[in-house]
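Thread: Newbie trying to understand structure tokens

Hi all, I'm a second-year student working on a class project, and my supervisor (Dr. K.) asked me to get a predicted structure for one chain before our next meeting. I've only ever worked with sequences, so writing a 3D structure as a token string is new to me. If someone could post the tokens and maybe explain what I'm looking at, I'd be very grateful. Here's the chain:
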Amino acid sequence: MTENFDNHSYFKNRELSWLDFNGRVLEEARDPENPLLERVNFLGITQSNVDEFFMVRVASLNKMYSVNIQTTDASGMTPKEQIDAINIQEQKMVEKRYTTYNRSLLPQLEKNNIRIIKASEATEEQYKFIRRYFNDELYPVLTPLADDSSRPFPFISNNSLNIAVRIHESSNEKNKRFATVRIPDVFARIIRLPHADNTFILLEDVIKEFIGSLFTGYRVSEAAAYRVIRDMDLDVAEEDTSDLLREVQKQLKQREHGGVMRLEIENTMSERLSKRLIKTLAVDDKAVYRINGPIDLTFLKKLPRVVTGHADLSYPAFKPFVDPKLTAGKNIFAALRKRDFLLHYPYNSFATVVRFIEQAATDPNVLAIKMTLYRVSGNSPIIKYLGMAAQHGKQVTVLVEVKARFDEENNVRWAKQLEKMGCHVIYGLVGLKTHCKVALVIRHDEDGIRRYLHLGTGNYNDVTANFYTDMGILTANSDIGVDASHLFNMLSGYSKPPYFHKLHISPHKIREFINKKIDEEIKISKTGKKALIKMKMNSLSDQKIIEKLYEAAAAGVKIQLIVRGICCLKNDLPAIGNNIEVHSIVGRFLEHSRIYYFYNEGKEDVYLSSADMMTRNLDRRVELLFPALQEDLQRKIISIFKTMWEDNVKTRVLNGESFEKIDRRGLARLSAQEYFVAEAQKKNKLLLDRQKEAARDDSVFTPMTQHDSSLPDDQREE
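---
Reply by user tm_fold:
Sure, no problem. This is what the structure looks like when written as tokens:
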């Protein structure tokens, strides 16, 4: 009899699991083995992570609570119970973040002569500088906003830093008044001070020091910073995709006025002032966070960039490896006719993908380019080459996902730009985000029409490719090429292909395929043979997939999971024995690649995907799961997974529902990310040595035998 795993106690809440993940990022900020400025950066990342979490996930729960939804999630929690649990856990995390900042990072920075000071700590010359900076630069821009019967409390926009002020007339201390001043985001928040290397002051501290000059005839009795995080989730009605671009633009304007999800106030703010803010902004007391330090630590992500002379406090730079057959000047299409190539970013250079699109744009034999874009950089070279291709007369079709969260404005801009350059731009399917990553090039070769492809696990973003780990395959496989054409016909027109040869497409088909592969391993295990599943993903939260993994483990299938973020699975259930192991790697690079492996009686099927095992990826997005068909690529991906699995530096291991660091005593140190960086450097050195050797061989004098050096080049024999 098969056990029923549909039980609330078998699942961890998705949102609390995410907060646990952000806690693992915070551990990196607290880890003394990391370079100091990288620890500073990690702390800034935890802040930006949680800001987005409240803007989207907490906002979604609040919407459900506001309409009195009482249904529970897989873990058995109602929306209200989740909101309360999130705020309880996050209050603890806030305290831990600021303890890390105040007691660990600031003292360590000072030891390295990097200081963030208050105005009271400035030297005489520095104080003159900040006074001059305030008067000349800041004062003309600042606008004090009163709050009284004739001037109501102003709208406080999402994520803006503000200063709440209590003032009174110089002649009447009892007549207290309230005002607020927004800290303008047109100025850098970190200000470098003169007469000392790497000494900085924060913009809000300069403004608070001289804020009295904004209120002539009044005395300032109190000034304290605050910030609100609002509901920023886009809620687009997609009845007609022809109006989708207009609807997204409309929603972008409206979402700025979303409800307040979180209020942060300096812990020096008086009870009277804080109560006024809480009441005016209509914030639940549990969503008020009293901050022991500068509000909004995201400025720490910028600090390493402005610090000078301390390269030793950051990760050492490295050069990604480029396969010699794919370097600049080489014909990528000729290389792909011979074999497939695996790219593992950032250890392989993303420039190879950019070069693939560039060659397609300029090659006279290329007829068409079709590509999906989910997130691209602000100055994307891929956009430039797609436009160039259209201007060269090639047919260019680009699906731009204008609903990509927090990239909507950027993507709307790119969509319009691509259309101006002559590309055909489409915006995806009604009700679905298009999240798959595929570039298809159709070329007229000597032996006929051939399709060349890049399939990836991550975005076509040349900036994030430097610090996200992702994988991609370059191929000219004909079956995959036909499948890709079917996919684009689905996205751009009306087409329902009866089947795909090699690709598996969400919604629904990836779920069906994963279930089928797990069932096959279950069947094999029941015969007493070896059964093994390995998966690497960002998040594991889909209840049905987790239940299927439980079923497989109960049948004796060994399961190894690498899950960076959300993990709603628990591995201490009696029915599954010790058959599910879960690791989480948080390190220098954000682990973003997705790998799905099935032992299949020794045949070892290996797949890469744009999809995590989340309900939204499996049921509400267009996603892609694709095979590694070439044997050497399969072996390489299996080897990459093995190295990551054996990581004992940045890995945390799931114990029930909590992740714990590995006890390294007695183990040889292995950081998978460091290993892959070192591997790339070794390949670069080997390639350079070979090039030097070849150059030396070319420089050896060879007597003239077959041609006369006095002849013009075009008359010499080859």
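A couple of things are worth pointing out once you decode it. Residues 52 and 447 are 51 Å apart (CA to CA). The two ends are 76 Å apart (CA to CA). Feel free to ask follow-ups in this thread.
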